[in-house]
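Thread: "does anyone have the structure for this chain?"

Original post by V.I.:
We have the sequence but no experimental structure in hand. Need at least a predicted one for the grant figures.
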Amino acid sequence: MIKTEQELNEAVASADGPLRIIGGGTRPIGNPVEGAALRVGGLSGVTLYEPGALTIVVRAGTPLAEVKALLESEGQRLAFEPMDHRGLLGSHGEPTIGGVVAANISGPRRISAGACRDFLLGVRFVDGVGRVVKNGGRVMKNVTGYDLVKLMAGSFGTLGVLSEVSLKVLPKAEASATVIVHGLDAASAVEAMSRALGSPFDVTGAAHLPEQTMIRLEGFADSVTYRAGMLKEVLGGFGEVSIEDNSERSADIWQNLRDVSGFHGKAGDVWRISVRPSDGPKVGARLGGDLAYDWGGGLVWALVPEGTDVRAALAGINGHARLERGSGQAAFAPQGALLDRIAAELRAKFDPRGILNPGLMG
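Reply from O.Q.:
Generated one for you, tokens below.
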């Protein structure tokens, strides 16, 4: 178990073959990697937290729960609302903040606050030849050339092994409410969600499950109550509308949506499909089966029979489909000749020996 950046540096530099990077081990997403396990969960601890400056600097192996608890104690949170994959993937262990960043894990609040990478201020990592690289800092401005901060988010450990991350945090909302429209099909739901997102009521979540379309509002209690009532009137033309104004119950609704709880324990493969919101209903019409829509219709979770490759069925719809749970096929689809060439050149730059999670992303 790696416990310091120096140990990480030495382990990568001395490696004589492929490495399979493991943080908390809770997100086995991507193609299987054949290689020696490099366990970095011991690289843990908060190195700097300045609540007044809304910044935190933390070692990559730090459990996500520890980070969230510290922020909670100061009335703050990770605004990008990272998903917990354990229920969906049947995995164990503790999610780490480095794993969240490496996979750019972003939840329902992405449509209003942004993705994980949008809150990433700086990174330290060890590249494929053992060099320690630092980029960014504790301010948003970055004029150092390569924006490695954004590049590392979503690279799944194929460009470098994170040792430390700096993040912007935001205050926790005082209250939450969920406006629920009942009985809509996917097309009508996307229309309703678009209406809500285009309203002046600061929507922070818009999702659709069979027979329920949910719109989240957060902020000061009086403001949330007022906005929920106004939004109920706006959406009244779509059908029956109710309001869940208990903040704890509203939070439970969105935690279940965030973690795709409806698919837990169900047999089959799970695909994560990102498209334009207006194309979400088209995805559903072509795939059928169990579906959940987030991000106003732009993120579709699909539970399909084992071994199904949904990409053929979605031909002609612009977007990206990733196999989140399943095997027997490539988890990441080719991105096209140009982007695949750029990705290969980046890997050659940062991992010339090809030892960091080789083959995981294709």
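V.I.: this helps a lot. Residues 221-235 form the longest helix (15 residues).
O.Q.: and The longest strand covers residues 161-168.
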